[in-house]
Design goal:
The chain is 6% helix and 46% strand. It is mainly beta. It starts with 8 loop residues before the first helix and ends in a 6-residue tail after the last strand.
Length: 538
C-alpha cells in the first residue's frame, strides 16, 4: 500500500507544476474547490490555538525538543502549495505549548532530495563534537528522500542524514561531509528516525520505520550507528506501511516501575480508516525491545492498541529534552488523515496539529494503558467559567443554551452517572441545522463520533462515513468526558484519557449549543464549561 511519502508520480508532477505556476489536472486532487473567500476562510477555519502554518501544506510533526525556555515544533511543510510537495522542515516555537510563533523554514530540500520526517536531540555532552563550545549543539536526524531514484524505480530512495544547530535550533547546517549516517540497506520504505538518549544504558537509541517493522540502532556520538534489533513483523496493525515511530522510557503512575513505550504510526489501517497511531508497552535491554506479556495478550485480542480512536490524529510523536523537573512526556500529532487531507476545504493553508497532550502509563491489575490528557497550560487561557453541580432529565437535556458560550474555543468537562444500557448522545448544533454527534452507545459498548451533518463533507466520500467508533470493555456505569473545541476540531478525552477521539469538521456557521439525549434518565454531574480566549498563534 502507498504511504503518504511514497506518492504516485501524478501527485509528484502536480507538486512540480505548482512550483512553476501551472495548474494540475483535477485527477491529481491538487486543490479543493474554492468555496469561501480567503478572509472568510481565516475567520471560519483558522484555529484559535491549534498550530497551523501561515500558508502552505503541513503534515507530520518533526524534531520537537525543549531548549532555552522554548518548545520547538518542526513539521513537514510545503510552503509553495496547499497539498503535499517538496518537503521542508517548517518551524514554530512556543513558551507554553498553546501560543505558537512561526519561524523561518529550518531545513530546505535540495534538488529532488526532500527532507522527510525525523527528530532532534539536545546533545548536552557534545557527544557529536558538532558543538562550538558556546552553546549546546542541537542535532536533527531526518530522512533524505531521493525523488530521482524514486522516479527511476529504485529501492534505495531513503537514507538517514543529520543537520546541526549551534544557536538553540534557529538556524541549521547539514552535515554534508558525514551524511548519510545510516545508509539504506535495500528497503524501499526506510524512514522517520526518532532518536533519544537512553539514560539507563548510556547511549543514543534510534527507532526507524522499515516498511512493516521497526529497526533499532544505537550510537555513542549520533554520527556512527550500529544496528541493534528489529520488532514488529506480524505484530499489531499492518493495514499499511509503518511510519513515524517514537520510543521512550516512562514511569508507571504511582510506582517506581518503568516501562518502554513504542509508538508506531501507520497509513492506511487506522482504527476507523486511513491513518492511525498505535503503541506497544514493553521492556528494553539496550538492544532489544520485548513486549510485556499482558500487553501482548491485549494486542492479540484487540489486533492493535491505539493512542487515539478518532480519524484525525496521525504521525504523533513526543518532545525530547523536556525538563526533568517537569517530568512530563509531551505528545502532539498531525490533525488530519491521508484519506482526505489534500481535499479539505481550505486553500491558503492545509492542516493543523492536535493540542499537545501529556502521556501517562497507568496500570490496572496486570494491564497497562497509555492515557493522554490536554496539557495543563490550556487553563491559563480560560476567560469565562460556568459550573453546574448537576443536571438531570429525560429525552433531551440542554447543557449549553444557544449562544451562551463561544464554542469556537472552549473546554467542556462533565460526568455521566447511573448509566443504563442505552445510547447517550451529545449534539453540538447551530442555527443552520448543522450538527456533530458524539457519545456512548452503552448497549453495544462503544464511543462514537458522527460528523455526517457537520457542515462541508462533499470534498471526500471517506470524510464523514462510516461513523467513528472506539470499543469499550462491557457496559459503563459512569463516565467522564473532557471535550476540547476549536473552530474546526473536537478532541474527546474519555475517563481521564483512557480513550481519545480526535476529529475535524468544516461548518458554515459556528456551533452555538450543546445537548445530550437518551431514552433513559440522564444524570450529568460536575459540568464545567470554560470559554477560552487565545489570540491567534502567529
Amino acid at each position: 500500500m502507498k504511504s503518504k511519502k511514497h506518492l504516485p508520480l501524478a501527485l509528484y508532477s502536480a507538486a512540480l507544476l505548482s512550483i512553476v505556476g501551472l495548474k494540475p489536472s483535477s485527477a491529481t486532487a491538487q486543490t479543493a474547490a474554492v468555496t469561501v473567500s480567503n478572509t472568510a476562510e481565516e475567520q471560519m477555519y483558522r484555529p484559535h490555538f491549534h498550530f497551523t502554518p501561515k500558508k502552505g501544506w503541513m503534515n507530520d510533526p518533526n524534531g520537537m525538543f525543549f531548549a532555552n525556555g522554548y518548545y520547538h515544533l518542526f513539521y513537514q511543510h510545503y510552503p509553495d502549495g496547499n497539498t503535499w510537495g517538496p518537503m521542508h522542515w517548517g518551524h514554530a516555537i512556543s513558551k507554553d505549548l498553546i501560543k505558537w510563533e512561526e519561524q523561518p523554514i529550518a531545513l530546505y530540500p535540495d534538488k529532488d532530495k526532500y527532507i522527510f520526517s525525523g527528530s532532534a536531540v539536545v546533545d548536552t555532552q557534545n557527544t557529536s563534537s558538532l558543538g562550538t563550545g558556546k552553546t549546546t549543539p542541537i542535532v536533527a536526524i531526518y530522512t533524505l528522500h531521493d525523488m530521482t531514484k524514486e522516479k527511476a524505480g529504485k529501492i534505495d530512495v531513503e537514507q538517514q542524514d543529520i543537520a546541526f544547530s549551534n544557536d538553540n535550533g534557529f538556524t541549521w547546517q547539514k552535515f554534508e561531509e558525514g551524511n548519510p549516517v545510516v545508509k539504506n540497506p535495500g528497503i524501499r520504505d526506510f524512514r522517520d528516525p526518532k532518536v533519544s538518549w537512553d539514560e539507563t544504558h548510556k547511549q543514543w537509541i534510534m527507532a526507524l520505520a522499515a516498511q512493516d517493522r521497526i529497526h533499532f540502532y544505537k550510537s555513542s556520538n549520533l554520527k556512527n550507528w550500529e544496528f541493534a534489533s528489529e520488532f514488529g513483523k506480524n505484530i499489531g496493525a499492518h493495514g499499511g506501511v509503518w511510519e513515524c515511530p517514537d520510543f521512550f522510557e516512562i514511569k508507571v503512575e504511582g510506582t517506581k516501575e518503568t516501562k518502554w513505550i513504542l509508538i508506531v504510526n501507520l497509513n492506511p489501517g487506522g482504527p476507523n480508516g486511513g491513518s492511525g497511531v498505535q503503541y506497544f508497552v514493553g521492556d528494553f535491554d539496550g538492544k532489544t525491545f520485548t513486549m510485556d506479556a499482558s500487553f501482548a495478550e491485549r494486542v492479540n485480542n484487540e489486533k492493535a492498541v491505539w493512542a487515539d480512536y478518532g480519524k484525525d490524529n496521525y504521525a504523533g510523536v513526543t518532545w525530547n529534552n523536556v525538563p526533568t523537573s517537569d517530568g512530563r512526556r509531551l505528545f502532539i500529532g498531525w490533525m488530519s488523515n491521508w484519506e482526505y487531507a489534500q481535499q479539505v476545504p481550505t486553500t491558503t493553508w492545509r492542516s493543523s496539529t492536535t493540542i499537545p497532550r501529556e502521556l501517562k502509563l497507568v496500570k490496572k491489575g496486570n494491564h497497562y494503558n497509555l492515557v493522554s490528557t490536554p496539557v495543563k497550560e490550556i487553563n491559563n487561557y480560560v476567560s469565562k467559567t460556568i459550573k453546574a453541580k448537576s443536571k438531570t432529565g429525560k429525552g433531551t437535556l440542554n447543557l449549553i443554551e444557544n449562544g451562551k458560550v463561544d464554542l469556537t474555543q472552549a473546554v467542556v468537562s462533565l460526568d455521566l452517572k447511573n448509566l443504563k444500557q442505552e445510547d447517550y448522545s451529545f449534539t453540538l448544533s447551530n442555527a443552520n441545522g448543522e450538527s456533530l454527534s458524539f457519545g456512548l452507545n452503552n448497549k453495544e459498548n462503544y464511543l462514537f463520533v458522527d460528523r455526517s451533518k457537520a457542515g462541508k463533507i462533499d470534498f471526500s466520500d471517506k470524510f464523514a462515513l462510516p461513523v467513528s467508533k472506539a470499543f469499550l470493555e462491557g457496559s459503563q456505569k459512569s463516565t467522564a468526558f473532557k471535550i476540547i473545541l476549536d473552530k474546526t476540531s473536537i478532541e474527546i478525552f474519555y475517563n481521564n484519557g483512557e480513550k481519545v477521539m480526535t476529529e475535524i469538521f468544516f461548518l458554515n456557521k459556528p456551533f452555538t449549543s450543546l445537548s445530550v439525549t437518551s431514552k433513559e434518565k440522564i444524570e450529568v454531574n460536575n459540568l464545567i464549561i470554560q470559554e477560552l480566549n487565545v489570540s491567534k498563534s502567529h
